Amino acid sequence: YGVHYMYSYTNVVSDNLVVNSRIGYALMQSKFLTVENNLSFNSNNHGLLLNFITKSTIKNNYITGVRQRQNPQAIGAEGKALFIYNSLFNTIEGNWFARSQIGIHLTAGSEDNKIIGNSFINNPIQVKYVSSRDQNWNGNYWSNYLGWDSNGDGLGDVTFEPNDGVDKMLWQYPEAKLLMNSPAILTLRWVQREFPVLKPSGIRDHSPLMTSYFKATKKQALAIKQFESKS
C-alpha cells in the first residue's frame, strides 16, 4: 500500500503521491479523517479504499489509471478508482476518478454518504452498485452523460443513471455475460428504457455537471503534468 491507516481518528492524510502500487490509499476502521490533495497513478487494485470509514471528508484527490494488470480476466478483480465498503456519513467531494476499470464501487451498506462535485472520466464502468436501495446524488460530472442543459446553469436537465437491471444481473451472475448481446438481453434493456416503472433501484445523479472540474494544488498540477508527459 502507498498509505495504510487502521484505527486512526481525527487525522489528516494530505499531499501524498503514490505510483504503481497495489492499493494507493487503504483507509480502514477509522473516523473523522480528512483525506485531501492526494494523488494516485496506476494502482493495481484500488486507488482509494474506504473500509469501515465514518464521518470523514474525502476531498480534492486525483486518482487515475487503476487497472488489474496481473489477472485482468478474473471475475470481480477490476481495478477500482474508489472502493467504499461499509462506510457511512462521509463527504466525498471534488475528486477526480479517471481511466480506471471501475470509477466507484459501493457495497455492504455504504449508502449514507454525500457524493458531490466529483468527476468520473473515461471509466468503462462508472459505477458498480448491486444493493436494492436507491441512492440519489447531485452535481457530479460523468464523461458518458448524454443529456443537455437547456437553461445554461451548468447542470444537466436529465437524470444520469449509470446502470440498469441488466448490469446488476451480470454482476450478480457473471456467467450470464455469455448472453450479453443476445436478443433476450437487448430486449430487457429496451423494456427498462421504455418503461421507467420497471427500473430497478440504483444510483441516480439528478443534477449532473455538464463540465468536469478539478481544483489542483500547485504540487498536484506539477505531478499531473509530469505523469501525463510520460504516459
Describe this structure in words.
There is one protein chain. The chain has 231 residues and is α/β, with parallel strands linked by helices. Helix content is 14%, strand content 33%. A six-stranded parallel sheet has the order 1-4-7-10-13-16, with no helix packed on it. A six-stranded parallel sheet has the order 3-6-9-12-15-18, with helices on one face. The protein is globular.
Order of helices and strands: EEEEEEEEEEEEEEEEEEHHEH
Strand order of the largest sheet: 1-4-7-10-13-16
Tally of discrete structural domains: 2
Number of strands: 19
Mean pLDDT over the residues: 87
Class of secondary structure makeup: alpha/beta
Tally of helical runs = 3
Instruction: Give the overall shape.
Output: globular
List keywords for this structure.
single chain; about 230 residues; alpha/beta; 2 domains; six-stranded parallel beta sheet; globular
Brief write-up:
The chain has 231 residues and is of the alpha/beta class. 14% of the residues lie in helices and 33% in strands.
Topology:
Layout: E1 3-6, E2 12-14, E3 17-19, E4 23-31, E5 34-36, E6 39-41, E7 46-54, E8 57-59, E9 62-64, E10 80-85, E11 91-93, E12 96-98, E13 102-107, E14 114-116, E15 119-121, E16 125-129, E17 135-137, E18 141-142, H1 165-172, H2 183-194, E19 203-205, H3 218-230
Parallel strand pairs: 1-4, 2-5, 3-6, 4-7, 5-8, 6-9, 7-10, 8-11, 9-12, 10-13, 11-14, 12-15, 13-16, 15-18, 17-19
